[in-house]
Amino acid sequence: MRLTKKKHSCIRLEKDGATLVVDPGGFSEEDAAAGADAVLITHEHPDHYDEGRVRATLEAGAEVWTLRSVADGLSAAFPGRVHTVGHGDTFTAAGFDVQVHGELHAVIHPDLPRITNVGFLVDGSLFHPGDALTVPGQTVDTLMVPVQAPWNKISEVIDYVREIKPRLTVDIHDALLTDIARPLYDRHLGTLGGADHERLDPGRSTDV
Fold this sequence. Notes:
The structure is a single chain. The protein is α/β, with parallel strands linked by helices. It has one domain: Metallo-beta-lactamase, Chain A (4-Layer Sandwich). It has helices spanning about 50-60, 70, 155-165, 180-190; strands at about 1-5, 10-15, 20, 40, 65, 80-85, 90-95, 95-100, 120, 125-130, 140-145, 170, 195-200, 205. The longest helix is centred in the last third of the chain and has 11 residues, at about 155-165. The model has no long low-confidence stretch (mean pLDDT about 95).
């Protein structure tokens, strides 16, 4: 399948003429989900889920798979096209086979309540964890790795990559990472992670 990196944590996957979009949030391009056949949303934070953009995609005929905290706000207006999923579920979206892994967002601070978060394993090969360092418990070829966030540090990210042992890591959750810091993150992940590392600028694509 063809992977296209959009800004921050949003990606587009294309296969056999169908398009699947993950996490079209407010930090990604306004048209990040345009033309999608299916949309997956890991959690409710606005950098991963922009309600207006997702509603526009639904109005254009797409279907959405997400956790209850997001689905409850959409399903009444789009009956039959918004699907609630949770850890352990499997489904097919626009021809892509998807497994759901994880339950909770990573801890930002003990004083902040944790919200729900799910990760999506697509076609048994590409894993998008959302805002958590979820280990899916099976082989992952391509790991979308959240490189910089208020809830992580680089040593945790490196250990996460080492635990999953993917062939390739590709950056997500990078909108807050400055240009001056990117080479440092690239070097640490590429040298210490134990996997090939690729940083795609927004709009760039690769086959995975």
